[in-house]
Amino acid sequence: MNGRFYETRMVRPVRLTVWAFAALCVAFILSGCQEANMAANQVFEQSSLTDNVDHLSPWTAPEKGKGTVVQFLPFSGVPVNTADAIYKVIRARAANENINLALRLDEPATYRVRTLINAVGSADVSIFIFIVELYDVSGKRVHRFVGQEYGAAPGSEPWSGIDAETERHIGDRILYGIKDWVTRAN
Fold this sequence. Notes:
Elements: H1 2-45, E1 69-72, H2 80-96, E2 100-102, E3 111-121, E4 126-135, E5 141-151, H3 164-185
Parallel strand pairs: 1-2, 1-3
Antiparallel strand pairs: 3-4, 4-5
Helix pairs in contact: 2-3
């Protein structure tokens, strides 16, 4: 009887300690997930595309004979050199696709395009997520599309996983997404 009493008294604290440790581990893991989700959400909350803006201030429409003119606003969320490379792809392809681009922000345009590109990465791959919004002359958002492109494994940060081929793919997908919509809208 005395041995059994001793065994019971020792097993209960050990079980309690194991359960307390397990609960602590679960709480720690969940708090880490919550912090990661909060950090990811902050990136998109700070973006100008997810602020539920469905209007821009109105601007001047192009003359009747100019056709559809598309104007890109500066890209958000992307390093400047990467944004420049993607825009160069869009400019080079636009002429071949019969899309007129406004090259300055003060030029008249049929549509304005806001673009957010964000990068997330793991040890194996970088993922580049883009959100593209088109606004008409009155400033009303008329179309939005989202896409993603995969890149190489990132180094210290996800943008290091982008290369010229990935920039080309992103530029092509943005341009052809706009072309498909403008063609249907007109």
